[in-house]
Write a structure and sequence with these properties.
Number of helices: 5
Strand content: 25-35%
Largest sheet: 9 strands, mixed
Number of strands: 13
């Protein structure tokens, strides 16, 4: 099953949000993410959080449509996004998409990106989508298709770096080492029909980006 988490970060492309919703089996709003759904008049399956960043209009929409809620105290050890992930994991979802989890608060953005590691360890497919990027965390094989106009960046997240091979890219690599903190893996492009990524050692954030 595919679960979608909508948080209160930046979303401006609501047509894209609608298309992501259509792909999902269960839509969960993390707190102020309900404000985004209010703009497209969509009723989610659940709204979860401490409700410290949700608007009065969204509260009214929840009540009027009898939308289920799961409330947590404002003083807690986990963000609303992490609590939303925990809910979907506990309920057996094998693919989880997060949107509205990037924005001006870089601490929240980074924390949400690193939540992909939690999903990877559980072997659950996870990705973050915003208006300009799709973000994965990978540790093995991935094939990319139909991405001629996109930038592809790979960034190691473990201190001992990554060893990877790339084929079908403008810059192909063969068991290349990229150290942690290096910009070597930034702004590549797929130039063939398929772009193949093979991580031989380590973990890498994969950014598929378009300005």
């Amino acid at each position: 099953m595919k679960g979608l988490i909508i948080a209160s970060g930046n979303i401006t492309d609501y047509n894209r949000l609608v298309s992501i919703i259509k792909y999902s089996d269960f839509v969960l709003c993390a707190d102020g993410g309900m404000d985004h759904l209010l703009k497209i008049n969509y009723i989610p399956d659940l709204v979860l959080g401490d409700f410290d960043s949700i608007s009065k209009d969204s509260f009214n929409f929840i009540r009027e449509n009898n939308i289920p809620i799961k409330k947590f105290p404002s003083i807690k050890d986990s963000t609303d996004s992490e609590l939303a992930i925990d809910f979907l994991v506990e309920n057996g979802f094998d693919e989880i998409i997060l949107t509205g989890v990037t924005g001006t608060r870089l601490d929240h953005t980074m924390a949400n990106i690193f939540l992909l590691n939690y999903l990877l360890k559980k072997r659950i497919k996870g990705k973050i989508i915003d208006d300009h990027n799709t973000i994965y965390l990978i540790d093995d094989y991935m094939e990319l298709n139909d991405l001629e106009d996109f930038y592809i960046s790979l960034m190691p997240i473990n201190e001992d770096g990554i060893v990877l091979s790339l084929s079908g890219f403008f810059y192909n690599l063969d068991h290349e080492f990229i150290e942690f903190g290096s910009s070597q893996g930034i702004s590549n492009k797929v130039i063939d029909e398929h772009g193949i990524i093979q991580i031989h050692n380590g973990k890498a954030l994969l950014f598929i980006s378009k300005d």
